Amino acid sequence: MLKELAAGARMLLRGFGFWRRDAGVMLLGLVPAAIVFAALVWGLVALGIGLPGLVDWATPFADGWQEFWRSAFRALVTVVVFAGAAVLAFVTFTALTLIVGDPFYERIWKAVEADLGGEVPAEGPSFWSGVGNSLVLVVQGVLSAAVVAVAGFVPVVGGVLAAVLGAVLTGRLLARELAARAFDARHLDPRVRRALIRAHRWRFLGFGVATQLCFLVPLGAIATMPAAVAGATMLARSVLDEVHPVAADRA
User: Fold this and answer.
1) 100: exposed, middle or buried (Cβ count in 10 Å: 0-12, 13-18, 19+)
2) How many Å apart are CA 99 and CA 102, to the nearest integer?
3) What letter does residue 81 receive in the DSSP assignment?
4) Is the CB of residue 61 less than 8 Å from the CB of residue 74?
5) If you count Cβ atoms within 10 Å of the first and of the last residue's Cβ in the chain, which end, N or C, has fewer?
6) Which residues, including other chains, have CB under 8 Å from residue 151's CB and lie 6 or more apart?
7) Rounded Cα–Cα distance for residues 226 and 32 (Å)
8) Please, what sign has the CA dihedral across residues 185, 207, 157, 220?
9) Is 43 helix (H, G, I), strand (E, B) or coil?
10) Residue 152: which residues within 8 A CB-CB, separation 6 or more?
């Protein structure tokens, strides 16, 4: 498990290393990431400013409590709601950036595929296929945010549990979405794709969590997105190359 987690994280490092191979195509990937990042940060800041008042308004039943318990409860609700919104923002960032920057990330995917060699699909997935995948990711992100929010209310360990659960759920979603282009381009049967991801779940999780941690660094989401697309292509290829004969026969 630990070996596979580390292997997944190294895929992201290899994605950053692709800047040395084709800096021009990677530079283009910063543009859509910057646009979407600015919009989501503005939304989170606005939520952070207005959330305390919103929580006070939504919890009138706590008005009669002792001040310590009232403040502690409302602070917990505020943290949990904001954490859920942050999880949703992480997933939404990836989905929206992939939609907005589809032509740019198509070029990164093709460049990485060509650099890796072997059988390279003539065309990637269609734009509308990418939109559909991104919308599915958003829905899954909403469900993950709800799960994280509920976990945050667990007594004593709620904060830690929500943080860990958020990292795992978000990392898993990020890895699957970012690697989808390489799978879609090969027209793999959904059952084959799920089997591949399930068989290498720890590698995908290592990549996804590493990507998410980079997103947490100030402006890290912008700098990481091109590398994440490149690294996810390498991740998908590493899985496909291991079981290529089987995957090709079943597709």
Assistant:
1) middle
2) 5
3) H
4) no
5) N
6) 158, 161, 162, 165
7) 10
8) negative
9) helix
10) 76, 79, 80, 83, 84, 158, 159, 161, 162
Q: Two tokens at 230? A: 């490149």
Cα–Cα distance, 63 to 114 (Å, whole number): 63
Q: Considering the entire predicted model, what is its pTM?
A: 0.74
Q: Where are the domains of the chain?
A: 2-250
Quickly list DSSP for the chain: -HHHHHHHHHHHHHHHHGGGT-HHHHHHTHHHHHHHHHHHHHHHHHHHHHHHHHHHHH-GGGTTS-HHHHHHHHHHHHHHHHHHHHHHHHHHHHHHHHHHTHHHHHHHHHHHHHHH-S---SS---HHHHHHHHHHHHHHHHHHHHHHHHHTTSTTTHHHHHHHHHHHHHHHHHHHHHHHHHHHHTT--HHHHHHHHHHTHHHHHHHHHHHHHHHHSTTHHHHHHHHHHHHHHHHHHHHHHHSHHHHHHH-
Distance in Å from the first CA to the final CA of the chain: 28
Q: CA separation (Å) from 251 to 186, 245, 248? A: 8, 10, 5
Three-state secondary-structure class, residue 49: helix
Q: 7-51: per-residue pLDDT in tens? A: 999 999 999 999 999 999 999 899 999 999 898 889 888 988 888
Joined tokens for residue 123: 């065309």
Q: Which structure tokens are listed for 42?
A: 């503005």
Rounded Cα distance, 228 and 212, in Å: 10
The number of beta carbons lying within 10 Å of the beta carbon of residue 104 is 23
Report the C-alpha gap between 91 and 135 in whole angstroms.
Answer: 10
At 240, list the tokens: 């496909």
